[in-house]
Design brief:
Layout: E1 4-9, H1 17-30, E2 35-39, H2 45-49, H3 59-63, E3 71-74, E4 77-80, H4 89-92, H5 98-103, E5 110-114, H6 120-129, E6 132-137, H7 141-159, E7 167-175, H8 180-192, E8 197-202, H9 205-213, H10 217-220, H11 225-239
Parallel strand pairs: 1-5, 1-6, 2-4, 2-5, 6-7, 7-8
Antiparallel strand pairs: 3-4
Helix pairs in contact: 1-11
């Protein structure tokens, strides 16, 4: 069995990273893949968005050497919640490869690591455990800068032959083509990162409502524009 391990990262908050991670998980589960979302965010937003108890034992417990039971959010879709225990000193001092070691025995077709914004030691755990990385940005200049920092880390690890994602793409999130900055962002990134795949998730209220109502996307709005965008991302991951 080929297991796909996907890190979803964005150094800046508020760019739709958790929405992308959770919606992608819902799409892949709907397609019959057994999916586990590993929430690396101390705020535990992925657990909340997918409708499970965000305060339950989860990723911090896993990183502490224990075996927490993943929570079922939908058929084929499970979650290990994040939470404030991820800021514990013992987790801050983990080796970057420790998450990869901890998830190795887990029997899922897809692991999705929802990396936190601005917490680099937790983000690094996800990037190192993954074989594919989705680097999210919206059209805000600071978001683009943050995405660039993640891309630099991925490039450095690859150049040094270190463990971690070997394939990555930029995900342009919350894109509304009625806005001039959003219309320009794809062209700007094509110039700056000509060799990196660019994938787009358009602004879609269906994504926001799924998160707000705590229902996985494919259970709430499977025919939405956002769902189709995430299906295209899933296709690139599985077959790209």
């Amino acid at each position: 069995m080929t297991q796909h391990r996907i890190a979803v990262a964005a150094r800046k908050g508020g760019v739709g990273k958790t929405t992308v991670a959770c919606s992608l998980a819902s799409v892949l589960a709907f397609q019959g893949k057994r999916v586990l979302v590993v929430d690396l965010d101390p705020q535990s937003n992925a657990g909340y968005v997918l409708g499970v108890d965000p305060t339950a034992l989860g990723t911090a417990e896993l990183l502490s050497g224990n075996a927490p039971k993943p929570l079922e959010a939908a058929p084929n879709l499970h979650v290990l919640p994040g939470g404030p225990d991820l800021t514990d000193h013992n987790i801050q001092t983990l080796d970057p490869e420790d998450l990869a070691d901890a998830v190795a025995p887990l029997n899922y077709d897809v692991l999705i690591f929802d990396c936190p914004p601005g917490v680099e030691y937790l983000e690094r755990l996800g990037l190192v455990a993954a074989d594919v990385a989705l680097v999210c940005t919206d059209a805000h200049p600071l978001a683009v800068v943050g995405a660039g920092r993640v891309l630099n880390e991925l490039n450095l690890r690859q150049q040094k032959g270190r463990k971690g994602a070997k394939r990555w793409a930029l995900v342009l999130s919350k894109i509304d083509l009625r806005r001039s900055m959003d219309r320009a962002i794809d062209e700007q990134l094509a110039v700056t990162y000509p060799s990196i795949k660019r994938l787009t998730v358009h602004q879609d209220s269906a994504l926001a409502w799924a998160a707000a109502e705590r229902v996985p996307l494919m259970q709430s709005e499977p025919n939405s524009k956002g769902a189709k965008d995430l299906m295209a991302i899933a296709e690139w991951i599985l077959n790209g």
